[in-house]
Amino acid sequence: MSVAQLKVPVTEQDHFQGAPDAPVTLVEYGDYECPHCARAHPLIELVQRRVGQRLRFVFRNFPLTEVHPHAEQAAEAAEAAAARGKFWVMHDMIYEHQRDGLALRDLGQYAAAVGLDAMAVMQDVAAHGFLPRIREDFMGGVRSGVNGTPTFFINGVRFDGDWTDVDELVEAINGAAVGAT
Fold first, then answer.
1. CB neighbours of 157 closer than 8 A, spacing ≥ 6?
2. Strands 55-61 and 157-158, how do they pair?
3. In degrees rounded to 5, what are phi and psi of residue 157?
4. DSSP letter string over 42-68?
5. Helix and strand tally (H, E) in the chain?
6. Considering the entire predicted model, what is its pTM?
7. Residues 6+ apart with CB under 8 A from 21
8. What pLDDT digit, counting tens, does each position of 108-126 carry?
9. Which residues lie below 8 Å from residue 122, measured CB to CB, with a gap of 6+?
10. N or C: where does the chain have the smaller number of CB atoms within 10 Å of the terminal CB?
């Protein structure tokens, strides 16, 4: 049985939280319209608090457009926010309000709520200027064996455990931290 490996290394171009030289990197391939990803969002925040400075968390876009018709434009809104230095607040806002809607007007309201020019973000989404970045993330996920969301990699190895079990995920991260030192 082969273990899926992350095929696209993490770079400074990725969206990440934590120290770039942290001993453990947790990569999530996520979809903003996926209910499982929305469920994972607060769990990852809990994991980050528990693991602390030993963890760098990376988010990559993996919109499953065939089942989530608003996922790609939500990713475009997050990328438009990133271009303005507000990726993480928009990322959080989208997941926290996923059930409220992900139509363009909703994304504009979320952009305004995090202090962005809503009209400019909506224009960026409509222009699709961030689609190449999103599709690059997506194809990197495909090459790495991602076939659903959320999918996690710990130090480049796919985590096939139960991501809903925070203790199991923290244990895997702590094990990777020991192996990295």
1. 3, 4, 5, 6, 176
2. unpaired
3. -115, 130
4. HHHHHHHHHHGGGEEEEEEE---TTT-
5. 7, 5
6. 0.96
7. none
8. 999 999 999 999 999 999 9
9. 104, 105, 107, 108, 111
10. N
